[in-house]
Amino acid sequence: MALDFNFLVGGEAGQGVQSVSFVLSKIMMRGGYNVYSDQDFESRIRGGHSFSRVRVSNKPVAALSEKIDVLLALNEETIDLHRKEMKDGAVAIFDGESIKKDFGDGETFLNVPLVRLATEAAQNRLMSNTAAIGAAVGLVDFDFNLLAGMLREQFTRHGSEVAEGNVKAAQAGYDYARQHCPEKFTRRIKPIGNGDNRLLLTGHEAVALGAMAAGCKFVSGYPMTPTTSILEYIAGQSKSFNIPVIQAEDEISAMCMVVGAGYAGVRAMTATSGGGFCLMVEGLSLAGMTETPCVVVLGQRPGPAIGLPTRTEQGELWFALHAGHGEFPRAVLAPANVEDAFWKTVKAFNLAEKYQTPAIILTDHDLANSYLSVPRFDLAQVKIDRGQLLSDEEVSKLTEYKRHLFTDSGISPRALPLQGKVLVATDSDEHNEEGHIIEDAETRKRMMLKRMRKQEGMKSEIDKPIIHRKRGAKAVLVGWGSTYGAIKEAQELLGKEGVAVNVLHLNEIWPFPDKAVASMIEDSVKSVVIESNATGQLARLIRTETGIKATGTILKFDGRPFSAEYIIDELKDVL
What we know:
Blueprint (H helix, E strand, L loop, with lengths): L3 E10 L3 H14 L3 E7 L6 E11 L10 E6 L2 H7 L3 E9 L14 E3 L2 H9 L5 H12 L4 H12 L4 H21 L17 E5 H11 L4 E4 L6 H9 L1 H4 L3 E3 L3 H13 L4 E6 H17 L3 E7 L16 H6 L8 E3 L4 H18 L2 E7 H5 L1 E5 L16 H5 L44 H19 L6 E3 L6 E6 L3 H13 L4 E6 L1 E3 L3 H9 L3 E6 L5 H10 L5 E4 L8 H8 L4
Parallel strand pairs: 1-4, 4-5, 5-6, 8-9, 8-10, 10-11, 11-13, 12-13, 16-17, 16-19, 19-20
Antiparallel strand pairs: 1-3, 2-3, 2-14, 7-14, 12-18, 15-17
Helix pairs in contact: 1-4, 1-5, 3-4, 3-6, 4-6, 5-6, 7-8, 7-13, 10-11, 17-20
């Protein structure tokens, strides 16, 4: 039988909401299930309202679901805010000795004395969160051994006494929930396999792993939500993989360091959000002029200015496409999900080096912080393409070297500073083939055309959009980046209602795959572009590049991610 089950864990920042949801996600994955878990938190260290949804299914899932089966409330506000999202027959777990409110319905609101159970079982009231996990797992009659094993794995580094204390607290919560489970609650989750061959990752953890697999050897950045997690992840592995991670004094410095590293021949990356990317733009243009490879992760969040720093949006597509003074080629990729984030990062490094130009990876807060269970990456499929990088032997045979040599492809053979006896020169001013400053019109024209020719080569390597067709479809749903999971699920749910729609999704955006996009839209009676911004940036890009105006748009810019249910509801006004 199909299983699609949703936990919601809620409380204040500082109450351990993310820790509880992570453990739930991890044990469900190890029980053989597919897991998707999104994080919703405010931009504060303590207080406010935070929650995490954990979706568990025996079928692939890659988006949130808005209806809850088990609500795990660490404070009263969580029940007040989310009780309306509970399905018929759902149960809310709360500590009635801490939340002193009578909710009336004992069949729906299960009072579990979490603090008292943790204190009695483990002599530590701080382990009440672990008791809460145990209660949630007990309510669905899941295998406690998987939870106990996970807790020992998580807490043994703090000492065996702490680990076993957490196991005891979880056992107390588990037993209490099994003994007091409401009769009407009959939902059960039993392990269906072994999930040890899968990984539970966020999108930005996948980006970090992709960079490491691609041979990145220098990272510089200034912490900024949501991309700080990339810097932290790689920094945690820096000694093992010999990757210096530098926290610069600001984003200007970080970008210039990355350009310098790329000029020296090192695969280099920085990661930032919109406000930080503003400061990086001059350095980005420097990379464009000097034909220096570099990778920039732009983690979008709602603006303008500080906006909503811990929420999600797709408001910087045109910013990424046109950032910089003057014109120069670039690649812009937008991963569709966690697994895609790994592979698109590998490709970004290859495109940057092959075409000696910046590559931008567009993510957003939702992709950055949502967990997804994915197969282990096959590292044998990782291919490194350093383009026309000259070997020491090739350089030793040169009698002269022109860093910006005119070529039909626009790509000049690349030697590195201090490699052999040749002089490697470039400049941020316009320059000639040798890299020396010029002012004459003819050289300027030839050099500009040389750089822009690389755009055509890159276009041939941009993958076609992701396409899912349904027989008899009268409309196509168009999206980009992290909205893929919700759009694909909406297609499936509509199909069950007898409504056939196609899906066209872009995860490689620039150079724009105009022919593939135009062909798919022209084959459809209606086209609906779905994106998380207020101005329909992809819809405008499609019209600019193909001349085709979408039939309609579904635009969401409240800082919250799409769900399939939301898309279907909005489509009623469009189709």
